[in-house]
Here is the input.
Amino acid sequence: MPNKPAAQVVPSRDVDPVAAAVIDDALKVRASHPAVPTLDILDLVLQGRRTRPLNFGAVSPVSPFGLLVVEAFDRGMPVSDWIGFYRYPAPRVIAALDDIWRKEVWPAFTAHFGIA
Here is the structure.
């Protein structure tokens, strides 16, 4: 059964073109190669694109790209829990998750790749 193509991501206006390409490429690779570890996908799509800080704009942790970052860099909770907690939101839980995203997960991603 062929893999279905990744849905095209339309970045917000504050995303620079290189970051938009990283997001698009990462989602395409994930769709076509679902068994490849997420960190390997991010390593691949960021090759040659780490020469300057990248502006990804406001990435939600439960957006398709955000979930790739969560999968690769959140050691405390699986992606399924992030999805579940956001699906049935309790304000305090969402605030705690947003805090983890902003202070731990996203900084781990940008530091790992030197793109902050």
Summary: Residues 6 and 28 are 5 Å apart (CA to CA). Confidence is low (pLDDT under 50) at residues 1-9. The helical segments are 17-32, 38-46, 64-73, 79-87, 91-113. The chain has one domain: 17-113.
